[in-house]
Specification:
The complex is a heterodimer.
Chain A: H1 3-6, H2 18-32, E1 52-59, E2 65-66, E3 69-70, H3 71-84, E4 88-100, H4 105-122, E5 125-134, E6 142-152, E7 168-171, H5 177-186, H6 203-212, E8 218-221, H7 226-238, E9 241-245, H8 253-262, E10 275-279, H9 281-292, E11 301-307, E12 314-317, E13 323-325
Parallel strand pairs in A: 4-5, 9-12
Antiparallel strand pairs in A: 1-6, 2-3, 4-6, 7-10, 7-11, 8-10, 9-11, 12-13
Chain B: H1 9-15, E1 21-25, H2 28-37, E2 47-51, H3 56-59, H4 62-73, E3 77-80, H5 94-99, E4 104-106, H6 110-119, E5 125-131, H7 136-149, E6 154-161, H8 164-170, E7 176-180, H9 181-187, H10 190-197, E8 201-205, H11 209-225, E9 230-232, H12 244-253, E10 254-261, E11 265-274, H13 283-286, H14 302-306, H15 330-333, H16 338-344
Parallel strand pairs in B: 1-2, 1-7, 3-4, 3-5, 5-6, 7-8, 8-9
Antiparallel strand pairs in B: 6-11, 10-11
Classes of the chains: A alpha+beta, B alpha/beta.
Chain lengths: 338, 350
């Protein structure tokens, strides 16, 4: 019985010979098929018309399958969202796999399915890929790196240093779901709760905002470290203060419950399908309305404003009507969140 | 309230115009929530909130960390709640012992420590049992489980504390105590009633914003009336009789002993140790531990912070040598510690 029939990835499948071709054929080629993906050494592509954005990201999430997605979907969303945050329509992606010897082929196929479906939904084309197999124990399951190229929408130039006093702060949905999902999947705490990752591609949401106005000052995806970390980064980059209204920050009740039990702050749990948007106040409600019409930002809300007070700090208006500091980020609570 | 205009708890606090009033929140979780919610800002200037010694990590003396490190260096696997790992001992912490090769395992329940011992027959496993009446029952349950299973590789290193004699030692530090809701959910309210008869006033408080602000409003209004008082402002959880089954379990395995509190010194009969019948799960006796005396960093003022004698920012180390990322004193390590809460929620900035 061949390894392919046994349903496991072998070292030989990464050695560049016939078995490599079989692996690529069975798992990747048919799912990622496009005129741009050829058997040649590099993809040859049309240049974008305007400015080009480019980004790369590695994905090592553990576990690689979780409620609401898997590492494949995450690897497309992560890079698509990074491009979207620069106002860029995602055009092309490449993906590199490092797979552990013995990894089940059917799981690899599920990962590839999720990648193909997510890419198709966004309208981005997978144009090149690489597959390596590492010995048992040298890598945990499967690691994926994706690199993306996008075309910046004319007139859009969101940057972390552009937040200005008076701007509104918007999140595109409830915060902390991905981090909470992974935390529960690891089962270190013996807590069960119905929480699904927010992992989603957000280009459509960004495109809808840019149709309202190109004058969006900052767009950031709140991945590792969550919304709180992103806001501290922006406060530092733009040298402004951030003031949040605790009561307007959307938090799923189950996520809130888990956080209260474990003493965690939802603003510091990772998201994989949420953006922090900073834009002039006069556009804020139109932007929220546009976001709410998109599939992955139906829960968009204005959560605060940019101020000139206390540059570099994030201040919370609490539920009892006082102000406190949002504690500063201390780094990701969990390793291998994405 | 007949004859009086209806007021919100926040309005009652803001309107207080009586003499200076010192209110001590005894519980570390109260300290954390009070800072997180900015509740101090609701109080008029003559009402002072003092953070008491109710964070288990904070009141655990340096010598206990030294004892745990001694065990770890003698090949014993230490199982512990995570926040003790970074608490500095006389020289080094469990984190530095782990970096040097000791086995230190973070668990989320004492029963997880028993499970670890069951799965690692070849290792001696000790669980660091700190905390008050709230956490002692779980540690007792774990020890009983280990005994019932005949595990010969599990023991407790105890530094548990109980509140009754601590209140007596603290009685002059405050005018009103905000009693810790969950301690009294275990031991009931008789003690608070007795203290009121002895002239010590207190309000039993819950943990939500509403419960805390309400408890404080009750405290200032009752204090204005002039008589010693006790009010249970957390009746949805605390029953007068407490939780007798948990108290019985504690009494079955443990007996009172003198114990050292960081910042307060030795308070007679305010600790718990395992009874002789349970010597087989007492890490000190099982491993023949010598007497170990700890020495705290002399510049650290955690002791005074814990007595309410100084603010965290009065300490020369606060925010300079001592931050939540690099804590020197125990009050900066635990999220419930007053220095940590003060630092993180901008006690000085706002």
């Amino acid at each position: 019985m061949s390894a392919m029939e046994a349903g496991k990835v072998t070292l030989a499948m990464g050695a560049g010979g016939k078995q490599t071709s079989e692996l690529i054929e069975r798992v990747f080629a048919r799912r990622f098929a496009s005129p741009l993906l050829t058997a040649d050494d590099a993809a040859v592509l049309e240049s974008p018309r305007g400015k080009m954005a480019m980004s790369t990201d590695g994905f090592i999430v553990s576990p690689s399958f979780f409620a609401g997605g898997n590492i494949g979907k995450l690897s497309i969303c992560g890079t698509v969202n990074d491009l979207a945050c620069m106002g860029a329509r995602p055009l092309y992606l490449t993906c590199g796999f490092v797979i552990e010897e013995g990894y089940p082929l059917d799981k690899l196929e599920q990962i590839a399915d999720a990648m193909a479906a997510t890419a198709a939904e966004v309208g981005v084309t997978l144009v090149a890929g690489d597959t390596k197999v590492a010995g048992r124990g040298q890598v945990d399951g499967v690691f994926i790196t994706t690199t993306g190229v996008g075309e910046v929408v004319e007139g859009a130039s969101p940057e972390g240093s552009k937040a200005a006093p008076g701007d509104a702060i918007i999140v595109t949905g409830d915060v902390g779901r991905h981090g909470c999902t992974i935390l529960l999947e690891r089962d270190d705490f013996g807590i069960e709760a119905d929480v699904t990752s927010d992992c989603a591609p957000l280009w459509a949401s960004v495109e809808a905002m840019l149709e309202v106005t190109r004058d969006v000052h900052v767009i950031r995806d709140a991945t590792r470290g969550g919304v709180g970390t992103v806001l501290y980064e922006i406060a530092g980059q733009s040298d402004v203060g951030v003031e949040l209204d605790a009561a307007s920050i959307p938090v799923d009740p189950a996520v809130g419950g888990v956080c209260r039990m474990l003493g965690l702050e939802p603003l510091y749990l990772a998201c994989e399908g949420r953006l922090v948007v900073i834009a002039p106040q006069e556009h804020a409600s139109a932007l929220v309305e546009a976001l709410r019409s998109c599939p992955y930002s139906g829960g968009a809300a204005i959560i605060g404003r940019v101020t000139s007070d206390r540059p570099g700090w994030v201040v919370l208006n609490t539920e009892v009507g006082t102000q406190t500091l949002l504690p500063q980020p201390t780094g990701e609570l969990l390793p291998r969140i994405c | 309230m007949s004859g009086q205009e209806r007021q919100t708890a926040a309005q009652i606090l803001a309107a207080y115009d009586g003499p200076p009033l010192r209110i001590m929140e005894v519980c570390g979780t109260h300290t954390h929530e009070i800072f997180r919610l900015g509740i101090r800002k609701l109080l008029p200037s003559q009402v002072e909130l003092i953070s008491g010694p109710g964070c288990p990590v904070c009141v655990t003396p340096v010598g206990f960390i030294d004892e745990a490190i001694w065990l770890a260096e003698h090949g014993v696997t230490i199982t512990t709640f995570g926040d003790l790992v970074r608490v500095p001992g006389t020289s080094g912490s469990l984190a530095s012992a782990r970096a040097a090769g000791a086995r230190v395992q973070v668990v989320y329940s004492p029963l997880d420590a028993v499970a670890y011992a069951r799965e690692h027959e070849g290792e001696q496993v000790a669980f660091l049992s700190v905390g008050f009446e709230t956490t002692v029952p779980a540690a007792c349950l774990a020890a009983e489980q280990a005994v019932a299973e005949g595990l010969s590789n599990f023991s407790l290193l105890t530094a548990n504390k109980t509140m009754p004699n601590a209140y007596a030692a603290l009685r002059d530090s405050a005018d009103v105590f905000l009693y810790p809701g969950h301690v009294h959910a275990i031991i009931g309210t008789q003690l608070c009633e007795d203290l009121a008869r002895q002239g010590v006033s207190g309000v039993l408080a819950g943990f939500t914003a509403k419960e805390l602000v309400t408890a404080l409003a009750v405290a200032v209004r009752k204090a204005g009336e002039g008589e010693p008082f006790f009010v249970n402002a957390y009746p949805r959880v605390v029953r007068p009789e407490g939780t007798p089954v948990a108290v019985a379990l504690i009494n079955k395995l443990m007996e009172p002993c003198d114990t050292e509190w960081r910042g307060l010194g030795v308070i007679p009969q305010s600790g718990l140790r395992l009874r002789d019948e349970y010597a087989a799960v007492d890490a000190r006796r099982v491993h023949g531990m010598p007497h170990i005396e700890g020495r705290a960093n002399p510049a650290c003022r955690c002791g005074e912070v814990l007595r309410g004698a100084c603010k965290p920012s009065d300490c020369p180390l606060f925010g300079r040598g001592c931050t939540p990322q690099h804590p020197v004193g125990a009050c900066m390590v635990s999220g419930e510690g007053s220095c940590s809460a003060y630092y993180q929620y901008g006690g000085d900035l706002l």
